[in-house]
Amino acid sequence: MTTKAEHIDTLARTLYGEAKPHDIQDATAIACVVMNRVALPNWPDDVESVCIQPYQFSCWNTSDPNRARIFKANGAWFDKCVQIAMKAVDHQLVDPTTASTHYHTPAVKPAWSRGKKPVYFTSGHVFFNDIDTKPPATAKDALNQIKPIGKTDTMVATKIGGVASVGIGAVSQAIETLEPAMPLATTLAQAAPWAIVAVLAMALLYIAWSRYQARKEGKI
């Protein structure tokens, strides 16, 4: 059975990895998000389980560089995170987020936040209390919530290649129709298939490059 001290330690490390460094307001808000999840039936019912639930708080992801950092947490800022965690576990924090269960940095816009209105802001994150997204069960689910497959570079490149092929094919047919009346059309018609190949090749190269970049950044 996990002890109270272990719950506090796990929450403190979560705050150390998730909150903007030395930002008490941000760390307090994130601690409240954890406690709000504990209180709801669709999340685990204890602090440690909420913190380390797969694909939720990114600092616990095995591919996240912050994971190594939180295990080595120390110093004045970590001490402050421990203090905030103690108050949270003892239910002594006043929740400034009005029962928020989700947040993200201003630099991103996950799919689950679209059409939703933030209820609280810190210098590091924006917070939401009206998200009904089901907690992801796999890494794929988590990625789809952050960035649906249709919005990924791979799918965008595929769509570009497909649309370009159809467009150039239509142009090629139109040129062939005009061939008898336009000598130049013959040359263009002959070149059109190569143009299609070039566009598709560019799309495939972009797909390969985007997947390489995503793997490099730990996104796939």
Question: What attributes characterize this protein structure?
Answer:
220 residues; disordered C terminus; mainly alpha; 3 strands; 2 domains
Instruction: Tell how many strands the DSSP assignment holds.
Output: 3
The DSSP helix count reads 8
Given helix and strand content, the structural type is mainly alpha
In spatial order, strands of the major sheet run 1-3-2
Shape, principal axes of CA atoms: elongated
Terminal residue distance:
34 Å
- Using only C-alpha atoms, the radius of gyration works out to 25 Å
Beta-strand percentage range: under 5%
Q: Classify the helix fraction into a percent range.
A: 55-70%
Number of domains: 2
Give the low-pLDDT segments: 215-220
Which sheet architecture does the biggest sheet show?
3 strands, antiparallel
> What is the H/E order?
HHHHHEEEHHH
Calculate the mean pLDDT score and round it: 81
How would you characterize the overall build of this protein?
- This protein has 220 residues and is mainly alpha-helical.
- It folds into 2 domains: 4-135; 149-216.
- It is 57% helix and 4% strand.
- It has a 3-stranded antiparallel beta sheet with strand order 1-3-2, with helices on one face.
- Helix 1 (4-18) packs across helix 2 (24-39) and helix 1 crosses helix 5.
- The protein is elongated.
- The model is unreliable at 215-220 (pLDDT under 50).
